[in-house]
Amino acid sequence: MSLAGFFQHLVNALSLGGIYALIAIGYTMVYGILRLINFAHGDVFTYGIYFAFYAVVLFLMPWWVAFVFSIFATAFLGAFIERIAYRPLRNAPRISALITAIGVSFFLENFAIVAFGGRAKSFNPQTGIYPTSFLNMINIGGVRIPVLTFITIGIVIAALVLLIWIVYRTKIGMAMRAISKDIPTTKLMGVNADRVVSFTFMLGSGLAAIGGILWAMKYPQVYPYTGMIPGLKAFIAAVVGGIGSIQGAMVGGFILGISEIMIVAFVPSLAGYRDAFAYAILLFVLLVKPTGILGVEVSEKV
Amino acid sequence: MNTQTMLKIEDLHVHYGSIHALKGISIEVETGQIVTLIGANGAGKTTTLQAITNLVRKSGGKVLFNGTDITHMATHHIINNGIALVPEGRRIFPNLTVHENLMMGAYARKDVEGIKKDLDWVLTLFPRLRERLKQLGGTLSGGEQQMLAVARGLMTRPKLLMLDEPSLGLAPLLVREVFQIIQKIREEGVTILLIEQNALAALKIADYGYVLETGRIVMQDTGQNLLKSDDVRKAYLGVAIT
Ligand SMILES: Nc1ncnc2c1ncn2[C@@H]1O[C@H](COP(=O)(O)OP(=O)(O)OP(=O)(O)O)[C@@H](O)[C@H]1O
Ligand SMILES: [Mg+2]
Q: What are the φ and ψ backbone dihedral angles of A201, each rounded to 5 degrees?
């Protein structure tokens, strides 16, 4: 493989891994605070794409306004789900919340079929949903890479830096870190814990919307189950990285994206097993380090 | 002496499932005083503080703070009304730095100048914390964590500071230091509700004391009188009655 060829695979891997990372963070943050696996997160990702789609097609917003609108709308959707579905179960057995999360996932998928239709909608730049120039090719040492790939990597990096800044440099981020260790003591600091939980859902869902839009530009369509496979892989990424750890989710996302692309690139005969690699990595990591790469033993919440 | 009531607890009940942990206790804390609540393991001391701050559900009774009914108020509102609880077992945020732990105490406050002043005040009370501001809370020694827990509670700028066994697990020298600091805090105008198993030390600095036994107040008097009481001496001070 030529150096340029390798570079092509590398940027593809980084853009795919970055999208997984953006989704994985939502799983890991919610788990970190509530010890809840939010099965609806993949569907929230799907809704992020729908919001962007309809903002352009129906409400005729310019594409970039539509994308920003979608990020905020999805953030509120995430907080809304928490408010009506999970918060009433805060003191219920954890299995109840888990089953509820699965129920929310089914509901969102079926509601999407009713509201948006079961057939895939095209997320194609020809429809004005994003500039066709994103698909222009850049020639690097003989290989041609679409501008979109670099835009994706840039946006992922910007989003991750912003997230780290929020979590480690702002007051609400400090409360998020505190509450993930000890909810009652955080309340004793005069913190409105529900508000911190809402904010966490908004942050995770907003990142999922960014991931969704980037995903839909790469695989240009959206249908009610779009989020299933990337959602599942991002969940695996979160577990591989160590669920509860934000850095772990990032690492896990990139590991999954890079290995998926690189294995196919180096052993093309395995291309058909592409989706199975994630499970192989998951099994391997769980065997070697059950808490995940950056995970630490978390105590059960009472 | 100022005898305005700051905290008034009336007929407080708490159930854990079928366990009746508090069976109707009434306590009053006067403004400016140190009041102590002593009792053996499992008497219900921690439960009392958690019920006041609504961390556990009350099954009956009433709590008034400076005349305001806080019985059903959300925990964070109670704190922001001026009650701080330094919980049993310190409960430092291990993944936050010492400085961040202190700032968590000031979370709901908006008075930037006041926060700065109070930070300086608690670091003067606990100079050891000053050298460790950048260190993670989880890496402090037990004694340092206890100091951080008290300092963090003070950062909420409470009118009433409730301490749940602040001397637990500390070396004798440190215990003395903690009790001296509690008196210093009171001199700054903070009212104190102190829970202790170290009954001798607690009663020595307390204006008033309550003795809790399996969910009931069995005795109450001034700290001095309780110290002299035979029952208290026998049960809690390990003194043989001659
Ligand atoms: N979460 C809980 N669930 C069930 N029972 C509880 C719970 N918390 C406390 N109890 C019970 O309530 C009673 C009072 O406990 P509490 O912790 O208030 O005692 P305490 O006076 O603080 O004791 P210690 O000095 O050991 O800290 C005990 O019998 C205890 O077993
Ligand atoms: Mg206790």
A: -65, -40
